[in-house]
Amino acid sequence: MSSFISDTISNSRFQLIATAAVSGAAVAGLILGFQALEREERLSELKNSIPSLSTDKGRLNSFGVSSESGLDLEDARNIALAKRAQSGDFDEDLILEQLARNQVFLTPEGLQKLRDSFVIVVGCGGVGSHCAATLARSGVSKLRLIDFDQVTLSSLNRHAVATLADVGTPKVQCLYRRLIAIAPWIKFDLRQEKFDESVAEAMLAPWKEDGRKPDFIIDAIDNIDTKVALLKYCYDNNLPVISSMGAGCKGDPTKIVIGDIGTSKDDGLSRATRRRLKLLGITSGIPVVYSTEQSGEGKAELLPLPEEEFQKGSVGDLGVMANFRVRILPVLGTMPAIFGLTAANHVILRITGYPISYVPGKARERMYEGILTYVQGSEEKLARMFVPGTTGLKTPLTLGDVAFMTEELYRGRSIISGIPTKLVLIRFKKPETCSMTVIGEGKDEQKCSTIRLRDLVCMTKEEATRHEKEIFKADKSLAELYDEETIKRVEERMLEAEKYEWFRR
Fold first, then answer.
1. What CA–CA distance (Å, rounded) separates 145 from 159?
2. 207, 285, 304, 309: which has the fewest C-beta neighbours closer than 10 Å?
3. In sequence order, which residues have a C-beta less than 8 Å from that of residue 454 and are 6 or more positions away?
């Protein structure tokens, strides 16, 4: 054995291979070492380029603010860096390293969509602040923050970034000064104004520099009038929006869900918002974050301020505006944060095109069951065209598939007319061969439809009946029944469905 090893080592070919391997490892080590050193040097240069806190010779007052400049020294340093970064003077590799975990999750293409996006957050309190902070940390490059209010002491139990030093400062400014310290390359548009219908067009206008329309709008308003005005404007103008319902009096994070405004049955704010929207002709089509938690004995409740408190005088100081009804609102600080993070998560996934498969809300399950039954019946009729007498056909679809196709892919509307009621799913194209597979025989025989998500379109029941009669039975072509624009729209949704099928495996 020892002679074999000795002969192998002395072999010139082995020596050549070993030399090459060692050399390759050494070169790889040098390259990796050089890249790490280069990255460290760039990071060091960036840090060294940030103005030192000691460069401002102005003395600080008791609040940590320079009496000469009016700016906290750290704020001044962060603003200086932000100006550089927003003008393009910031190492791209360092940005990508900061966003590396998101890039791996969302893919480079998905992250780039996020970095190119423009998002508006309306309401920068407990919900909105956590939402805005998450979007900033995740890579959104343009943020418009809208809020008329200031930070109060009672804000500190739920606000994402506010400190005691921020009490009395505008909420939008408080967020800005903290978030540029995290991601200085983000461009902010601060609007310290109260949102209402009269200013909706200006508040939700495209980004001034490049005319980009908002990729998403987040409603974190806790006043019904302004909330309804915002949602109505977004709905009428086809602006993507998600609305956060009430986090007050809620304590169970496992009951927080995302669903259509029509499904949010167990939340006071969503109930009032939904009823107001119905009066304006809007019954669905707006995603909301809400809680299904029920009130109960021993749980917190929303109550008017007791009369004895009014007798003490100056109760107006407790409200944010003179005309707002003063109430005691029990809020567990964790819940607004979870609402905000849930909304931000939805926006990130939507903008980047990441697959979403939310569990259907209980109020919609019956509708999904009806749609699934309709698909099964339609597929069985098709199978009988090829194999007469076919019964007991199964479909490879779940309630989750139906919910995704109906609510997420087709946005809860008919692809033909846009009508949001009496919806069903049906094949768009008539199959050329039998759309059924058979496994086993006798009592163990299983008949299954070959239907795929990409085959289905969303229509009203009346439209589907006409489609079945003309396309499946009368063998008319799609062009005879639908215009070119409709067919193109359907084909685009089919391609989108095909991409998501991979995630069902």
1. 15
2. 304
3. 494, 495, 497, 498, 501
Residue 264: how many other CB atoms lie within 10 Å? 26
pTM equals: 0.63
The sign of the CA dihedral 155, 161, 163, 166 is negative
d(CA 230, CA 204): 9
Q: Where are the beta strands (DSSP E) in 140-215?
A: 142-146, 187-191
pLDDT band at 56 (very low <50, low <70, confident <90, very high): very low
Cβ-count burial of 178 within 10 angstroms (0-12 exposed, 13-18 middle, 19+ buried)? buried
pLDDT tens track for 476-499: 999 999 999 999 999 999 998 888
DSSP 365-391: HHHHHHHHHHHHHHHHHHHHHHSTT--
Higher-scoring residue by pLDDT: 443, 49:
443
Can you tell me the mean pLDDT for 341-368?
83
- As given in the structure block, the two tokens for residue 338 are 């979870």
On the 0-12 / 13-18 / 19+ scale of CB atoms within 10 A, 134 is buried
Reference 427, options 366, 374, 505, 500; nearest CA is 374
User: What is the SS3 string spanning 38-69?
Assistant: HHHHHHHHHHHHCCCHHHCCCCECCCCCECCC
Instruction: Report the SS3 class of residue 451.
Output: coil
CA 280, 283, 284, 288 torsion-angle sign: positive
- The residue type of 46 is L
pLDDT in tens, 230-242: 999 999 999 999 9
Are residues 463 and 318 in contact, defined by beta-carbon separation less than 8 angstroms? no
Q: b/e per residue, 420-448, with b = 16+ CB within 10 A?
A: beebbbbbbebbeeebbeeeeeeeeeebb
Q: What percent of the chain has pLDDT over 90?
A: 47
* Domain boundaries for CATH 3.40.50.720 within the chain: 78-299+331-352
Q: Residues near 358 by Cβ (< 8 Å), separated by ≥ 6? A: 257, 258, 259, 403, 404, 407, 408
| Residue 291: strand, helix, or coil | strand
CA dist., res. 187 & res. 189, Å (int): 7
Residue with tokens 């029920």: 294
Is residue 55's pLDDT more than 80? no
Which CATH number is 78-299+331-352's, of 1.10.3720.10, 2.60.120.560, 3.40.50.720, 3.30.870.10? 3.40.50.720
Round to whole Å and give the CA distance between 342 and 200.
Answer: 25
For the chain, the average pLDDT equals 82
The answer to whether 122 touches 214, Cβ cutoff 8 Å, is no
Closest CA to 230 of 260, 261, 264, 196: 196
- Structure tokens given for 313: 């005088």
Q: What is the rounded end-to-end Cα distance, in angstroms, of the chain? A: 52
Burial of 388 (0-12, 13-18, 19+ CB in 10 A): exposed
Q: What is the pLDDT of residue 366?
A: 81
